């Protein structure tokens, strides 16, 4: 017959195992388990385990062993693109269970890329109906918005990492973005850009001779909060600011011709060129992570000049370019 101590151990062990019993029952109760449930179930299990810490060494050892086993078997689930995309597409879960911002951002970027490819591909029937370069394209605006997400911001002082749309939202396409700010945007395939020479051609054309990588996250950036405040302080640079996003996501805010804020979302595969002399700022989004290449002509100079800086030569040249419609 078990002793009182052993009975107490068994009761505590049952508490530790209860989440696994529920997860097993939940999964076994379905005729088939959808892939989109993997990340939410794993997240719920690991969260319960983390909250069930015990002062009993034996029970705590079991808890830690289960937690380690979960991490070993499912720790990389969010980096599996198929699992991540299926979770995001499931309206029950979306991105609320993700703990790895890089995995979530990568999946969202891949979904956007698939949407763009689907929208951009013309069927043979559409080609046959086309009458030449002057053909009317009803979906032109939608295609452009699918490639770049840029919109006029509201005046709210809420969390800078939110999207901050006006009501109703007011989007800009690529042509409007360039016309109103001089900002240039390119979309590159992360899987092929090194082989197809697309980035190399752009670097040669623009004279970019220097490049490095920057990672913005709590784990990788010293003085994280201070750096984010600095990035989000309105400023300008004496040279172009070029960012090619490899992982994660964020927002560049730029002033338009009438000094209103335009927010431009950047995700993996986006290359954005912020002209010298334009007032702008940067912030991460709610995923709090971005990894990007920085390109530069000659020796890099990252010095920000906070507003007001209207007397600087680069600012005067920018305003002159704006007056001419940003025509070179």
UniProtKB/TrEMBL annotation:
Q: Look up the record and name the pathway of this protein.
A: Amino-acid biosynthesis; L-methionine biosynthesis via salvage pathway; L-methionine from S-methyl-5-thio-alpha-D-ribose 1-phosphate: step 5/6
User: Which Enzyme Commission numbers does its entry carry?
Assistant: 1.13.11.54, 1.13.11.53
Q: How does it sit in the membrane?
A: Peripheral membrane protein
Q: Which family does it belong to?
A: Belongs to the acireductone dioxygenase (ARD) family.
Per the UniProt entry, what species is this protein from, by scientific name? Timema bartmani
Entries under CDD domains matching the protein: cupin_ARD
| Transmembrane parts of this sequence | none
Instruction: Supply the enzyme class, top level.
Output: oxidoreductase
Q: Where does Ni(2+) bind?
A: 235, 237, 241, 280
Cofactor binding mode and count: Binds either 1 Fe or Ni cation per monomer. Iron-binding promotes an acireductone dioxygenase reaction producing 2-keto-4-methylthiobutyrate, while nickel-binding promotes an acireductone dioxygenase reaction producing 3-(methylsulfanyl)propanoate.
The record's subcellular locations are:
Cell membrane; Cytoplasm; Nucleus
What cellular component terms from Gene Ontology apply here?
Answer: cytoplasm; nucleus; plasma membrane
Q: Which positions does UniProt annotate for Fe(2+) binding?
A: 235, 237, 241, 280
Q: PANTHER family, alphabetically?
A: ACIREDUCTONE DIOXYGENASE
Catalytic reactions of this protein: 1,2-dihydroxy-5-(methylsulfanyl)pent-1-en-3-one + O2 = 3-(methylsulfanyl)propanoate + CO + formate + 2 H(+); 1,2-dihydroxy-5-(methylsulfanyl)pent-1-en-3-one + O2 = 4-methylsulfanyl-2-oxobutanoate + formate + 2 H(+)
User: What is the protein's given name?
Assistant: Acireductone dioxygenase
Q: What does this protein do?
A: Catalyzes 2 different reactions between oxygen and the acireductone 1,2-dihydroxy-3-keto-5-methylthiopentene (DHK-MTPene) depending upon the metal bound in the active site. Fe-containing acireductone dioxygenase (Fe-ARD) produces formate and 2-keto-4-methylthiobutyrate (KMTB), the alpha-ketoacid precursor of methionine in the methionine recycle pathway. Ni-containing acireductone dioxygenase (Ni-ARD) produces methylthiopropionate, carbon monoxide and formate, and does not lie on the methionine recycle pathway.
Keywords per UniProt:
Amino-acid biosynthesis, Cytoplasm, Dioxygenase, Iron, Metal-binding, Methionine biosynthesis, Nickel, Nucleus, Oxidoreductase
């Amino acid at each position: 017959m078990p002793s009182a101590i052993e009975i107490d151990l068994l009761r505590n062990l049952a508490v530790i195992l209860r989440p696994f019993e529920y997860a097993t029952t939940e999964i076994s109760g379905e005729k088939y388990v959808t892939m989109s449930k993997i990340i939410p179930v794993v997240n719920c299990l690991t969260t319960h385990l983390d909250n069930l810490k015990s002062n009993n060494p034996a029970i705590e050892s079991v808890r830690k062993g289960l937690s380690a086993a979960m991490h070993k078997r499912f720790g990389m689930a969010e980096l599996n693109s198929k699992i991540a995309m299926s979770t995001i597409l499931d309206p029950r879960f979306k991105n609320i269970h993700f703990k790895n911002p890089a995995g979530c951002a990568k999946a969202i970027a891949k979904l956007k890329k698939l949407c763009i490819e689907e929208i951009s591909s013309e069927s043979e029937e559409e080609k046959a109906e086309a009458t030449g370069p002057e053909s009317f394209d009803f979906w032109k605006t939608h295609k452009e918005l699918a490639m770049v997400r840029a919109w006029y911001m509201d005046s709210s002082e809420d969390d800078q990492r939110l999207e901050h749309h006006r009501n109703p939202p007011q989007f800009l396409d690529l042509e409007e973005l360039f016309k109103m700010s001089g900002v240039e945007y390119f979309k590159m395939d992360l899987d092929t850009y090194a082989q197809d020479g697309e980035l190399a051609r752009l670097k040669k054309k623009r004279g970019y001779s220097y490049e490095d990588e920057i990672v913005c996250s709590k784990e990788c950036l010293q003085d994280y909060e201070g750096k984010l405040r600095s990035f989000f302080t309105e400023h300008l640079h004496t040279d172009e600011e070029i960012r090619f996003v490899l992982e994660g996501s964020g927002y560049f805010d730029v002033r338009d011709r009438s000094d209103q804020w335009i927010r431009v979302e950047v995700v993996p595969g986006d290359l954005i060129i912020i002209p010298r002399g334009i007032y702008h700022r940067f912030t991460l989004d709610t995923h709090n992570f971005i990894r990007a290449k920085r390109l530069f002509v000659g020796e890099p100079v990252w010095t920000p000049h906070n507003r007001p800086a209207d007397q600087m030569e680069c600012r005067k040249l920018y305003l002159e370019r704006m007056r001419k419609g940003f025509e070179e």
